[in-house]
Amino acid sequence: MNKIEEILNSGKIYKVMEWTDKDTHYHEYLQMMELYNSLGYTPEAEEKKLIF
């Protein structure tokens, strides 16, 4: 198992990337995450999630 796999499988919280408001798309990312998380788990919602 390589170093990345060890980190991913450790069960610990890790950051994939750091988003800050310096990124021009920061607020767009937040809105997309909010929408995605609010969709739920119905078959219709799962279809909508595929666009993300």
Keywords:
about 50 residues, 3 helices
Structural notes for this entry:
The protein has 3 helices and no strands. With 52 residues, the protein is mainly alpha-helical. It starts with a helix and ends with a helix. The mean pLDDT is 83.
Task: Summarize the structure in short.
The protein has 52 residues and is mainly alpha-helical. It is built from 3 helices and no strands.
Q: What level of helicity do the residues show? A: 40-55%
Tell me the span between the first and last alpha carbons: 30 Å
- Beta strands, count: 0
Specify Rg, calculated over alpha carbons: 15 Å
Oligomer: single chain
SSE succession:
HHH
Beta content comes to under 5%
Name the average pLDDT: 83
Classification by helices and strands: mainly alpha
User: What's the tally of helices?
Assistant: 3
Low-pLDDT stretches = none
Largest sheet: none
Overall, the morphology is flat
Outline the secondary-structure elements:
Layout: H1 3-9, H2 26-38, H3 43-49
